[in-house]
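Table 4 source record.
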Amino acid sequence: MVTRDTLLRDVLGGKSSKAVEKALGLSTVGQLLRHYPRRFNERGELTDLSQLVEGEEVTVLAEVESTSTRRIPGRKLNILEVSIRSGRHRATLSFFNQPWRERDLRPGRHGMFAGKVTRFRDKLQLNSPDYILLGEVGAGPESDGADPRAQDFAGALLPVYPAAAGLPSWTIARCVRLVLDTLDPVPDPLPAPVRARAAVMELDAALRKIHRPDTMAEYRQARRRLAFDEALGVQLVLAQRRHANAANPALARPRVAGGLVDAFDERLPFEFTGEQRQIAALISEELAAAHPMHRLLQGEVGSGKTVLALRAMLQVVDAGAQAALLAPTEVLAAQHERSVNDLLGELAQAGRLGGSERGTQVVLLTGSMSAPARRAALGELASGAAGIVIGTHALIQDQVQFAELGLVVIDEQHRFGVEQRDALRSKATAPPHLLVMTATPIPRTVAMTVFGDLETSELHELPGGRGTVSTTVVPVNERPDWLERVWQRIREEVAGSRQVFLVCPRIGDDSDAEDLGAAADDQQQTASVLGAYAELSQSQLRGLRLAMLHGRMPAEDKSSVMSAFAAGQIDVLVATTVIEVGINVPNATLMVIMDADRFGVSQLHQLRGRIGRGAHPGLCLMLSQLPFGHPALQRLEEVAKTTDGFALAELDLSQRREGDVLGAAQSGRKSQLKLLSLLQDAQLISSARAEAQSVIEADPELAQHRGLQELLWDSFDSERTEFLHKS
C-alpha cells in the first residue's frame, strides 16, 4: 500500500530517493507530490529562451540549429558548440571533449536541455547540460535515436519542474510517474458539501492531474483544488484565532465622560473627517467591550491614523490603565513622542508645573537612552505614573514592567516579528487590546490572508488644509540639463522659506547596512548620503544649510538633526529611508529621490508622503540614471501618475514576487504555500475565508471535522501552525 506517508525509498529505490532528498529535501511520497510543475510546454512548441537568467538552473525546450567544433591551441581540448533556437531567441550549448555528441545533436532535432546558465563573451550559454532528445518534428519520442527517457514526455503536455543541480526536470517527472502509478486512492479531507460549494474536484484527481493533465483545463481545475486547500488551511487557523480572541476575557476600558478624551477633542485645532469620526467611534466601542480589540488601521500617508491611536490610548488611560506605542526606529519613536506631546500640551504634563489635573505623563524608551534617563522612564512605567509610553524594541526587554498595560499600538507593524509583538503583549496581566497601524496600504487579498485575524479599518480621506503633491520622473542621463534644474528648484524652495528632503539609497561607507541592494561593482555610481552631502554642500547647494540623517548616527545626533529640521533651522536634509514613515515637517515641500529606481513602489509612496503636509503644495522629483523605455523607469512613471496608496499597493504586488503570504520575514521559515496566489486567487481566498468562518463558529476545535484537522496539519507543519496561532 502506497500512501502520502510512504517513504520515497520504498517506491523509487535507494539511488533515486537519495538523489531527490539531496537535491530537493523531499523524503516522502506526499512531499514529492507537492513539488508541483512550474509550467507545462506543449509537445513541439518551442520554449522562449529570452527568459534565461545568468546563474539559474533551467530547463528549456528548443531546436538544434547548428553545431561547430573548435580546438584550443596548445591544449588537448575540443569544444563542441551547439546553437539552439526557440522562436526568435538563441542560446549556446558547450561540451568539452565530447565530440561524439555531434552525432546526436544534429540540426532539426528537438530536445529538452537542463543546466546552469553561464555567460561567455557576453553570450548566455549552458555548459555540458543534461538533455533528452524528442525526435524529429512529428516523430515519436523514441524515433531516430531519441533517449528512451523521453517516454516521460510523450504526452501532449510536458511538465517542467523546479529543478536543482544534478536533478533535471525529466528525472523529477520520472519519479513522479513511478509514484503516481503505485499510489493508492488518496482520501479527501474536504466534506462533499464543502467541495460542492467551492466547486473543486476531489483531492485524488487533483494530485494526479496537477502532474499529468491531458489538457490545460484539467491542470487549471487541479490547481484550483490544491490552491483552495492551501487557502482554507490558512483561513481555518485565522478563524480559530478570531474565535479565541472573541472568547478571551479582557478588562473593558470604556470612555470616561469629562476625561482625557474629551479634553483632547477640545484642544484639536481641526475637525475630524467623516471616516475619522466613524473609526474613532468604532475603536471606542471595541475598547469598552469585555474581549480584546484586534484591529488593523490602514490608511493613506497623512490621513490621521496617529490622532486616532492617541484617542484610543487616552481612553485606556482614563480607564486606569496604560498604553504602549511600539515604533520600528528611534527616529520614528522620537517623532511620535514629540507629536504626542505637542497634541496633548498640558495634558501630557501631569504632576508637573503647568500640567493639567486631568493629564497623564508620556515617556520615551529607546535602546540608546542614557542610564539615568532609562531608569527614570522604567520607574514611571512600573509605578503607573506614565500613562503612555512610546518606544522601540527596548519596550520588550525583560526589565520593562508596566503597572497595568491595557492597550498595545503597533506602528508600521510589517517591520516587527511575531515574537516581538507577542513579547510586548505578554507584559499585560490581562489580555490587552491591540491596534495595528500601517501607512503602507495592504491589498485586500493580503489583508484577508496575512492579517485575517484582525478587523480592518481603512482611511482614504485626507484632512482639509493640506497642499497637493505632484510627482515628476527625471531621467538625468537622457537630459543632463534637467539635473541642473533640480538644484535650481531646491534653491527656489529654500528662497521661499520652505524646506527640502533629498533621499539617497545608500549611506556611503564600507558597511552600507541601509544599502537597498546595489551590486558591489556599481555602488560608486549609486547616490549615497555621505557622497551627496559632501559634494552638494560645496558646489550646487553651497550656501544653503544642509544636514545629514541616516540610521547609524548616534541617537542623540539623529534627534538633534530632526529637531533642527522641524524647527526650520535646516534647509536641505540629506537622508536615507530613515525618514520614510512618521516624519512630520509641514514646511517641507520638495522631495528629491536620487536613483529612485532603487526603491520599491511602497517606499516611493511613503517618501512622497513626507511633503505636502502643510498649506503649501508639494513636489516630488524622482531621479533616475536609467534610459527611456527601461521597465524600472516605467514603474516610476506609474507611481507618478497617482497618489492613491491603495492602487499603488496593488501595483506593487503585481510587480514583485508575492513572497510568503504568511510573512516569512516575520516567522523566519519558508512558506509551504506553493500554489496560492494573492494576485490570481482573490475569489478563492474569499470563499475559503467564509467557509472557515462558518466551520469554526460551529466547531472551534474541529472535533467534528477530522478531515479538516488533517488538511490543516497537511498544509502546515506544527511549527508553522503554532506561529499562526501565536501571531
